[in-house]
Design a protein that fits this description.
Length: 99
């Protein structure tokens, strides 16, 4: 279903702008690849201060959709949650190895 909606959107944009569908598809995918590369390039595995985190510019503005952003509080919460999960897994592995 999602592929159908995507293909329909590409066809509509291509028709409205008198561009080949293949070109519209490449532009669209290139745009989202750039967004993904920006987000994945952020050094979020490091323990950053609030100031360092805000200097990273972890926000992405997408026209007609809005701004994708991460607050410092959300970053801290996710870091803590990740550490809890990591500790839980280590504890379970240690218990499994006792047997």
């Amino acid at each position: 279903m999602r592929d159908f909606i995507y293909e329909k959107a590409v066809a509509e944009v291509a028709e409205n702008l008198s561009l080949p569908k293949k070109f519209v598809n490449r532009v669209y995918r290139s745009y989202w690849r750039a967004v993904r590369e920006h987000i994945t390039s952020l050094p979020l595995k490091e323990d950053l201060t609030d100031e360092e985190f805000n200097q990273l510019q972890p926000n992405v503005n997408i026209p007609s959709i809005g701004k994708l952003y991460v607050t410092t509080d959300k970053y801290r919460w996710l870091k803590d949650r990740f550490e809890q999960i990591k500790q839980y897994r280590e504890n379970n592995n240690a218990e499994d190895n006792k047997d």
